[in-house]
Write a structure and sequence with these properties.
Two copies of one chain form a homodimer. With 481 residues, the first copy, chain A, is an alpha/beta fold. Chain A folds into two domains: 278 residues, TIM Barrel, CATH 3.20.20; 111 residues, Orthogonal Bundle (Cyclin A, domain 1). The first copy, chain A, is 44% helix and 10% strand. Chain A is built from 21 helices and ten strands. In chain A, the strands form two sheets. In chain A, strands 2-3-4-5-6-7-8-9 form an eight-stranded parallel beta barrel, surrounded by seven helices. A two-stranded parallel ribbon of chain A has the order 1-10. In chain A, helix 10 links the parallel strand 8 and strand 9. In chain A, helix 15 crosses helix 16 and helix 19 packs across helix 20. The termini of chain A are far apart. The complex binds cobalt (II) ion (CO) (2 copies).
Chain lengths: 481, 481
């Protein structure tokens, strides 16, 4: 009997986030839901920070309403979301009560599976969210952000998996947002976690397609015992997106593994989104091939374009090479954080500052916070001299505690501020929307009654003043912390 | 010690054939040659039927001159070509002396490795070419066209490999022109051939990327013992093309396999062709994603578009579904030929005829020839009733001998006809050019002195009356037989 490999479909969240700047309107997803629901997926990822943000920033859509619609449209499916641990869907750490309330409301509105991660892999930053998910009776998926550095080892990832299991996680996700996970490490990490934690521990693998090797990594992860992999329907796959769902199904033919996906349903979903895709062409990623340089530079493509535009703004476009050489140095000094949002922006901007003004002559507020522990802890030791500079410039003390431990209860304040906004409907959901995006929510509440804008249908509906989406498609954008 | 996996670079032949309609001018390849030459490839594929055709049909370039230039520009590299067995680079069977003379001249002008195949996998159609290659002291690579049918088995492929070895082949190529080769069969076939023929028999694997699974197939083929795989530099890869060279290098990191490719050279080649690619945008394939339907339909994408346009011409575009259902029937009746040029066009056109006029009411001349054995033998038995119809309509008897056995010596006639053409330079190379493309060569000879046209540089140089390239990018196009 072949082993069934389960699949999480990404089309409703990460796929359009990675390939069309998170702009897909709910209206354009609805017609595909029946086929998605009946195709046999283990789960359907459909909610996260960037989609939430995009809903209120660009689409004039209530993200909670979107979730409730998904719940109705996908009655047979586990709904899955990506949750940034103590940051929830926002860009700062929230006090624990806010975490609890957010998770409760997401569960109440229909969420089944919470993939909880922290950009620094600081386990303390995911603890409260996982606890809340378990309390709500939902599936808590503890997440390991995969990165490469002299300090990141298979053993380290296994230890993190064990800690996540100890927190009560129902499954582990190995999350490779930058397409860095090669076949052999994919095999080794899955194998080692299974050996350490037991065969029955579910392991999910999330990879992007950017570097052209990760379909092979999925195969190797499956051979090592992975239970579920993430893919996106082919018409919205590849490039900075994901490996195609249909290819995964075909890849396994004749092997000791099989999916239970219904190919005729997949074909319908494919054809449907092939029709939708061109409507969003102004948002489409123009990367359709692969990029392998990231393996050597460790600098994701989106981060390079961010740094390029920062340099251009300062009339120093010719200094990109220096900045690219500076990045690994800054990353090392910061204790080898994975380079994903927000750490990629923080490290990248500091590298630009270092080249333009001299090394660590000026620290950004965010970099100082990172050095001082306000984002959490890093695997590597942070450089004591740079910590000292950060301490002096930011006039803050370094901390070693969990960052959220410094926060005072804030729910009541958030609630009263939220309720005071014009158009707020008085629900806890609205308060949470305000709490996540205090700069964007007020305008959204005030225009909500105008109804959703479909930017694919009517590109002119795009608000002229809206900021462009940030560099990293994975975890959203905007101001940090 | 990791095993070194060798690589054949396809950028100079199959990559631009598959992705930009074979239009790349020699001028645009020259600057990349030094880096290609020093990157550490096992071979550089740079010549074949479609590039030869395109040279004289579109680019006003002497294909023999191109070969001699490659020889000078790539002094450290094995030059490799694709040779259609008894068809050489043309669309009919040639008498053995022409085969011998062609191979001799190709060798003399610098060719090292001859990948010899027959579209029907009829070993008799590759015998003479392989003999000629061996006589010229060059590398003869016997080729198995991979296809899927109820009759095609691993055992069958192993037997074909053994026969190719018996003919004196220096290596075996498994050639998957339609991206049908899944990981498990890739593993099984390579493994079984190695077991039957010995570990020391070199096995090369050629796959396209169309279906999104073949990078995994390369990994599995390597695990089974494959010695060399074909890839294309990333900036001209994927879609109907090939897996990216750089991704292959990275994929193997940490495994028991390694390439000896120089990544910094690859990066230069990549960046160079990334700059060239947009200049050919009017020829670029607009398929950048994957297509997996071919696994079920067995009908390559190019073949579907051919049939669609045939139906449109007859005002019957609405009957495509019927035709698609008819194709497997026709293929079965024809003895399950692999669906590649020319068999894909022959089977596809007959399916259109069957739907439009009633099953086998009218046979095309080519389909009749196929049924009567004039292309060679097929793995499956051809349907006796349809053979009978072909016999009646074509007024030809079925044959079972090697088709070329029926041909009379023709070199002297070809030579005198070729030499009589205006602009012919009197060389055997020119005679061979005429022999391969008797309809195109006369015009080419008469305009040759005007020098090459670079369609990327100056799209207006495109001859207005030139026919569009045919459906299948693999083995050329144009009239058949
Ligand atoms: Co992702
Ligand atoms: Co090919």
């Amino acid at each position: 009997m072949p082993k069934t490999i389960e699949v999480t479909e990404l089309i409703l969240r990460d796929a359009h986030q990675s390939l069309m700047a998170t702009r897909m309107a709910m209206e354009d997803m609805v017609p595909a839901c029946e086929d998605i629901d009946k195709a046999g997926y283990w789960s359907v990822e459909c909610w996260g920070g960037a989609t939430f943000d995009s809903c209120i920033r660009f689409l004039n859509e209530d993200p909670w309403d979107r979730l409730r619609k998904f719940r109705k449209l996908l009655p047979n499916s586990r709904l899955q979301m990506l949750l940034r641990g103590q940051n929830l869907l926002g860009y700062r750490h929230y006090e624990d009560e806010v975490v609890d309330r957010f998770v409760d409301k997401a569960a109440e509105n229909g969420m089944d599976v919470f993939r909880v991660f922290d950009a620094l892999n600081d386990i303390r930053n995911v603890r409260q969210a996982i606890k809340a998910v378990k309390k709500a009776g939902k599936h808590a998926q503890g997440t390991i952000c995969y990165t490469v550095s002299p300090l990141h080892t298979v053993t380290g990832y296994v230890e993190m998996a064990e800690q996540l299991v100890d927190l009560g996680c129902d499954s582990i996700c190995i999350k490779d947002m930058a397409a860095l996970l090669k076949p052999q490490p994919a095999y080794d990490i899955v194998k080692a976690i299974k050996e350490a934690c037991g065969e029955e521990l579910r392991i999910h693998v999330h990879v992007h397609a950017t570097t052209g090797v990760t379909m092979v990594s999925l195969m190797k992860a499956i051979e090592a015992g992975a239970d579920c992999v993430d893919t996106a329907i082919s018409s919205l796959s590849l490039g900075p997106g994901h490996n195609p769902t249909e290819s995964l199904v075909e890849m396994l033919e004749g092997t000791p593994y099989v999916t239970k996906l219904d190919k005729s349903r997949l074909l319908k979903v494919k054809e449907y989104f092939a029709g939708i895709r061109p409507r969003y062409k102004e948002y489409l990623s123009n990367i359709t091939g692969v990029e392998t340089e990231i393996f050597d530079s460790q600098i994701p493509g989106g981060m390079i374009s961010n740094m390029e535009s920062q340099l251009k703004q300062q009339g120093a476009a010719d200094r990109l090479k220096e900045v690219l050489c500076e990045v690994p140095r800054v990353r090392k000094d910061a204790g080898y954080p994975p380079l994903v949002t927000p750490s990629s922006q923080i490290v990248g901007t500091q590298a630009v500052f270092n080249v333009m003004m001299g090394r660590y002559k000026v620290l950004t507020g965010e970099f100082a916070d990172l050095m001082l522990g306000y984002y959490g802890t890093t695997l590597g030791q942070r450089d004591p001299e740079v910590i000292n500079l950060a301490h002096k410039q930011a006039r803050k003390n370094p901390i070693t505690c969990r960052p959220a431990d410094l926060l005072k209860p804030e729910w009541d304040q958030l609630r009263s501020s939220g309720l005071a906004l014009k158009g707020c409907n008085g629900s806890d959901e609205d308060v949470l929307t305000y709490a996540m995006f205090p700069q964007v929510a007020p305008k959204f509440f005030s225009t909500r009654q105008e109804g959703p804008k479909n930017l694919g249908k009517d590109p002119s509906a795009k608000p002229a003043a809206a900021p462009a989406p940030g560099g990293n498609a994975e975890t959203g954008k905007g101001p940090v912390m």
